[in-house]
Amino acid sequence: MSAAGLLSAARAALTAGGSVHVDITANSTSGQVAFSEDASASGGRQVITIDGTGRATILLIDGVDYVQADAEALQGLFQASLQQATQDGGKWISLAPGEKLGTSTYDDVTAGITLSSVAQELQFGGHLTKASPATVAGQPVIGVQAPLPDGDGLPAGAKVVLYVTDNAALRPVRYELVGGGGTTNEFSFSHWGEKLTLTAPANAIPASSIGSGTIIT
Fold first, then answer.
1. Residue 217, class by beta-carbon neighbours within 10 Å (0-12 exposed, 13-18 middle, 19+ buried)?
2. Does the N-terminal or the C-terminal CB of the chain have fewer CB atoms within 10 Å?
3. pLDDT per residue over 174-192, tens digit each?
4. Contact (Cβ atoms closer than 8 angstroms) between residue 100 and residue 214
């Protein structure tokens, strides 16, 4: 299988995986953002932590996002005003298609929660090649890799690598930025096919009823 074929098969395996748990760590010169996700075909749960303090939880249930974020996360993640962050920090807010929370649209908030949107986050640029077989998270893997262009704070030689199971399933195991200096990104995939039970929080405040939740026309 070619490198491009391997990448396509891995994305397809992710989209068809039923459910998966994903741990993501993104480091940059401005700090660290960590994501703990449980994704399914139509919904999911995402817990986001900023520099170990600011925290937000997002649930996607029946096409509606439910967001609970402290004041720091409302400002840092959703670009809410200080007034809104102070007023609505810690409350559950519902976000329907066409609405905004802070400056974040429904599509912004939903990105990366379903299996198909997680697959879209496995981005590659440049010429694809196969990575050398390895062992990752205790299992044999094969992989595909591509160089990243210089710039954006990345040193020469930085690349992204996706490792997948070395079997017919070709399920993603780890996606990582290698050689990025102060910028690193790592996705780890586990707990495939486990049942995901989500419950919409009671008494969530509609985003359209608060300052930044106006409908987009």
1. exposed
2. C
3. 999 887 677 788 999 999 9
4. yes
Residue 145, φ and ψ in degrees, nearest 5: -140, 160
Helices (H), ranges, 30-184: 71-76, 82-88, 106-110, 115-120
Please give the structure tokens belonging to residue 35.
Answer: 């994501």
pTM: 0.88
State the Cα–Cα distance between residues 134 and 166, nearest whole angstrom: 9
What's the CA gap between 94 and 195, in Å, rounded?
24
Residue 202 burial by CB count (10 A; 0-12/13-18/19+): exposed, middle or buried? exposed
110, 78 Cβ separation under 8 angstroms = no
- What integer pLDDT is reported at residue 74 of this predicted model? 92
Structure tokens at 195: 């049942």
pLDDT (0 to 100) of residue 177: 87
Look at residue 151 in the predicted model and tell me its pLDDT. Answer: 64
Q: Using the predicted structure, report yes or no on whether residue 99 has a pLDDT greater than 80.
A: yes
Task: Please give the Cα distance from 38 to 59 (Å, whole number).
Answer: 10
Which pLDDT tens digit goes with each residue over 41-91? Answer: 999 999 999 988 889 999 999 999 999 999 999 998 899 888 989 999 999
Question: What SS3 state is found at 151?
Answer: strand
Task: For 142-161, give one letter per residue: b (16+ CB within 10 A) or e.
Answer: bbbbbbbeeeeebeeebbbb
Interatomic CA distance for residues 191 and 157, integer angstroms? 32
